[in-house]
Design a protein that fits this description.
Strand order of the largest sheet: 4-3-2-1-6-5
Structural class: mainly beta
Strand content: 35-45%
Helix content: under 10%
Radius of gyration: 11 Å
Distance between the termini: 14 Å
Organism: Halococcus morrhuae DSM 1307
Protein name: PRC-barrel domain-containing protein
Number of helices: 1
Number of domains: 1
Number of strands: 6
Length: 79
């Protein structure tokens, strides 16, 4: 389970290939919110496990996270 105490606003978020896909915009009530890179297509967002929405900030679910380290939040390959 992800420990949001290890995640701060401004932390980079990476996909399974190590590509930066966004940053943590906020951590509130034990939920981290990701501000995705505006250049990401809906197809890429869907492959990362983020639903279709008009807003570019998404709640990060525990099962989406592979690791959290000094480099940032690393997402799993499948969700």
């Amino acid at each position: 389970m992800m420990d949001t105490n290890d995640i701060d606003a401004g932390t980079d978020v990476y996909d399974v290939n190590g590509e930066e896909v966004g940053t943590i915009a906020d951590v509130e009530n034990d939920t981290a919110y990701v501000d995705l890179d505006p250049g990401l297509t809906d197809e890429v967002k869907a492959s990362l496990g983020f639903g279709d929405t008009d807003d570019d900030t998404y709640a990060l679910r525990d099962e989406m996270v592979d690791t959290v380290d000094d480099d940032g939040v690393h997402l799993q390959g499948t969700h």
